[in-house]
Amino acid sequence: MASLRLGDTAPDFEQDSSEGPIRFHQWLGDSWGVLFSHPADFTPVCTTELGLTAKLKDEFARRNVKVIALSVDPVDSHRKWIGDINTTQNTVVNFPILADADRKVSELYDLIHPNASTTATVRSLFVIDPQKKIRLTITYPASTGRNFDEILRVIDSLQLTEYHSVATPGNWKDGDDVVIVPSLQDPEVIRQKFPKGYRAVTSYLRLTPQPNKA
């Protein structure tokens, strides 16, 4: 199938997991979601990633984000692997890992790239909003672990820009100044939306304090 694009509806599915059967859209409910895939169980990079994800539970919860992982190995394998993750990463895995042994979800989300591997899924990640729309895709090679600080940063940006007429500049972090979108030109509307004022670097680059911060 063709690759999923930003703005597409995330495909729904029903699949077994380390926490029992999951119907994806129902499981998401009105939360944001992160779905991320792993080449296989008992792999070193994935073990560190899943440990990091478990440790970030409060950070994801604060952002109303549910996290779900995927590997093509079966549930019994996942449960043994979770024991390893908990022990070696000094944490407790607190999210489901999909058991995609039949490749159903992998095919829906185009996670097997034959020129990289004909059997292992690539290291892809999707951020999905409460309307079930795909808002971010990142794909890494199997050899490179993900940067979870960046994933949280992008979620912060997506949630901020969803509800305010702003964009976030390069290297932006939560609390930094943001950019007023160029389409917003009415001075009165700008005054109402941004009572802290703004600094015009050019006519199209206007910086303002982050609007959802005190």
What does the model show?
Helix content is 30%, strand content 21%. It is elongated, with a radius of gyration of 19 Å. It has two domains: 14-145, Glutaredoxin, CATH 3.40.30; 164-208, no CATH class. It is α+β, with helices and mostly antiparallel strands. The N and C termini lie far apart (46 Å).
CATH architecture descriptor name of the largest domain: 3-Layer(aba) Sandwich
The radius of gyration computed from the alpha-carbon positions, rounded to a whole number of angstroms, is 19 Å
> What is the ordering of alpha helices and beta strands?
EEHEHHEHEHEEHEEHEE
Biggest sheet architecture: 5 strands, mixed
Please identify the top-level CATH class of the largest domain.
Answer: Alpha Beta
Query: Helix- and strand-based class?
Result: alpha+beta
Keywords:
214 residues; alpha+beta; Glutaredoxin; 2 domains; five-stranded mixed beta sheet; four-stranded antiparallel beta sheet; 7 helices
What is this entry, summarized?
The chain has 214 residues and is of the alpha+beta class. It has seven helices and eleven strands.
Question: Mind sketching the topology for me?
Answer:
Blueprint: E1 14-15, E2 22-23, H1 24-28, E3 32-38, H2 44-55, H3 57-62, E4 65-71, H4 75-88, E5 97-99, H5 104-108, E6 123-128, E7 134-140, H6 148-163, E8 166-167, E9 178-180, H7 187-193, E10 199-200, E11 206-208
Parallel strand pairs: 3-4, 4-5
Antiparallel strand pairs: 1-2, 3-6, 6-7, 8-9, 9-11, 10-11
Helix pairs in contact: 2-4
